Amino acid sequence: MKQVFRRVLDGKGVIKVEDLPVPHCGSDQVLVASKYTAISAGTEGATLSKTFPELVKQTLQDPWMRNAVKGLIFGSSPAVVKNIVWDETTLMRAIGYSGAGIVVDVGKNVSETKPGDRVAFAAEGHAEFVAPSKNYVVPIPQRVGFEEAAFVTLGGIAMQGVRRAEIELGDKVAVIGLGLVGLIVSQLVSAAGGQVTGIDVDAQRLDLLGKLVSDANTINSTSLDPVEAVTALTGGYGADKVIICAASKDPVIANQAMKMARKQGVVVFVGIVKMDLERMPFFRNELDIRFSRAYGPGVMEPEYEKGRVDYPRHYIRWTQQRNLAEFLRLIEVGKVTVDPLIGGVFDVEKAQTAYDKLYDGSLGGIAALLKYDGSEQLPSATTAAKTVVCDTPIERDKIRIGVIGCGNFTRSTHIPNLDSNKDFQIAAIASSTGVNAVAINKRFSIPYSTTDYHELLSDDNIDAVLIATRHNLHSEIACAAMKAGKHVFVEKPAALSWEQHEALKQQTTETGPVYMVGYNRRYAPLAVELKSRLQPELPLIIHYQVCVPEIPADHWTLDPAEGGGRLVGEAEHFFDFINYLVGAPHTGVTARCLQREIETKDTQFNFIVEIDYGNRALGTVTYTSFAAPGSVRESVTVYQAGQTFILQDFKVLRVSANKTKTIRNAFGDMGHKAELEAFVSHLKGDATGRASEPLAASAISLEAMDSLKS
Predict the structure, then answer these.
(1) What confidence tens digit (pLDDT) does each residue in 386-431 have?
(2) 697 Cβ partners below 8 Å, 6+ apart?
(3) Which domains does the chain possess?
(4) How do residues 54-113 score in pLDDT, each as one tens digit?
(5) Is the distance from CB of 638 to CB of 644 less than 8 angstroms?
(6) How far apart are CA 497 and CA 32, in angstroms?
(7) CB within 8 Å of 233: residues ≥ 6 apart
């Protein structure tokens, strides 16, 4: 299938149309064959107009991203930094977020729609096939065409802005900025009983408003002072409501909005404008400032966005999905029209022409549509499930490995390491959307990519799989791979539940393929050095301290169902490392945590886990977000027979007895290359360095969570 992208590295306004596999349709998703998608000149224009330095600056303005970049630069090897920089600048970013088409397939949890239905969708890019969450899909009314329905997302944004303004009959409403959203907002205000005054610098847009809303007033702010004009039109009182739909870095727009509003009026920010507000207009008029967030309640709420929950209508009347549906109803009954906004329709292959004409003013309208398959026959997604990228021959003398999951870590670390290892050939990549895989396929000459990992499991040319998907899929895919006779290397965590753990335990017992979890720390050079200095017959005490910054509350790793949280989702690494040093099975686990009000047991950041190894050892893991910035992230202290060993971030090992010896590894090799070499050894029958019980660390994490919850 074809999809439209931009890359950070490309110049202003440059887009690419690439061939990708059809996206995978998950349990809560709907697979749609697009008919039309609408180009948003505002949002997409802002993205396409940014230069590389501007995009970097935008990224670094986020404190969390700034710390992440700092940690990357100072905590990774030059090779890893190079891979990440290359990846981030060349990776394709999907653009677009509004369209309409025909349902091809639905997930097992979707009952609201079925194949063959006409639907509009939000939050998906310009592509022949899209797979939105079911909460981003609404049916198209019978008398509404695909072209009109393609504006659904823009309509939802406008709808939420008008709801935030709480328009009443007779309200005098100033709308600043008459782009797509502004013109739709104006129609909605009129439909709600408000008197519209539109303000813009573009005469064409002002003329359009006059055609769309017959009784609207128009103000060209290049020739009239908008504050004085609005004040005059309202008898000196000012507008009851002001809705800002413009996008600008000039603070004058926000301040003019304050000045044209009446006392105790309402100013709603829909567009993105600079807010360097003058105090006195705000203070003197006791203004009510409100922000409108996308298309309504549900946006930025992970459970809703993923389609797992909906909000009861009697508690939240207008969710984002209901706003989208209502917008289409208003088109059907003639309260809103979008046809006059369309200046051109272009085949998706001509997307660059559409963008060029839109931004150079030669389009003849303020909106453009991209067109896909002209037939309304139900398309077949299966014909495009796999994308062949190159004619790379299969190398029979190598271990042919398929990579399932193509996230940041896989692209920056695993794939370059596999590519440089003479024992492996990367035979295929599977990822849920296919976007990440395509650039990697081209860079490393990988035969094909797919959005269905089952293709890799049924491919006789693949000997083993590396699983690096989101955590909830690790166990399911690993079991399926072993049943298919494939060897498995899977990233942590092995399992998120006892049910998954037991399924893996049964599968690894009953089948022949090698199963290995990516506990890389045991393969780090300084870890091997530390282990070599311990006396296997003597008891020891180990304290593993992990200091981490908090990550955003909506990050997928904190989702109990998808990521497992920090204890179950990440701490296996630390439990396995202690198991490695001790060399004996654990006999008991106790855990405690400091849980703040906004957290659950699954999502908290601060816990201590004590692991008992009988009379052989005691291990403790302290995981905290309370440490000072710049603290050592991982510090392991081992006490045995009058000796103290301190390992810091796998860069420095201090050995203290009568005197202290310091051993250094400049870039903190964390063992990622070595673990793949160990995987090769296991496949060849050498179990040296392999965990004697590959699921022992998983059991500790699950026992620790049970301890917290009990």
Answers:
(1) 666 667 777 888 999 999 998 888 988 999 999 999 999 999 999 8
(2) 492, 494, 517, 519, 572, 573, 575, 576, 579, 691
(3) 2-151+301-371 (3.90.180.10), 155-291 (3.40.50.720), 383-518 (3.40.50.720), 521-709 (3.30.360.10)
(4) 656 655 565 655 565 555 555 556 666 666 666 666 677 889 999 999 999 999 999 999
(5) yes
(6) 33
(7) 172, 197, 217
